[in-house]
Fold this sequence. Notes:
single chain; alpha/beta; Rossmann fold; 4-stranded parallel beta sheet; 4-stranded antiparallel beta sheet; 5 helices; about 30% helix
Amino acid sequence: MSNLIFPADSTDLRVNFSGPGSEDLASALALSPQPLDEADVAIFCVSAVDGFAPGMTEDWQRAREIYLPSIVAIVDLEKSEIDFEDMSAIVGKTLDPVITPYLVLHSAEGFPTAVISLETQLITDYTLGLKRTIESDPEHKELVAEFREEFLEQIESAGDEPFANALVFPAIPTAIHIKLGLAEILEWLRKIPSRS
């Protein structure tokens, strides 16, 4: 399903997946799920339709106790009336505050089709499952300026390697059927030091 490949120095990364859609996400990323206590990083899938899986808050708390870097993949955005920003806020109140490195751009029909990076301000368009990175226009930059400022402040105030040190938790918009979010998740997984 995915043509995204880990760089050679990340192939030994052990990833725990939990929540609705986690099996599909693991498959799309070509990764074998690992037990939480043996993982280098955890990906918690939260559905914009069904919410949190039973036991997720306990697993999240366990990940915090062992300082396990964690990503929240917000799935089912294409099926929900709740948008990514609102779902990220719900996650922040239920688990821990999250950072949002990307914002979602929608088609005319309201479906998620692209993300804009708050760090680079580049747009990655996944229309029809084809990944295309383009420059954002001034209107997009203006629309995300406040979000970008907040994101950059969060990263800066969290210190060195805040994700690898389990100090910040990125929420990533994910629509597996068009591959939206897969490259973005891999980008964050690459921030975890290799064990080799």
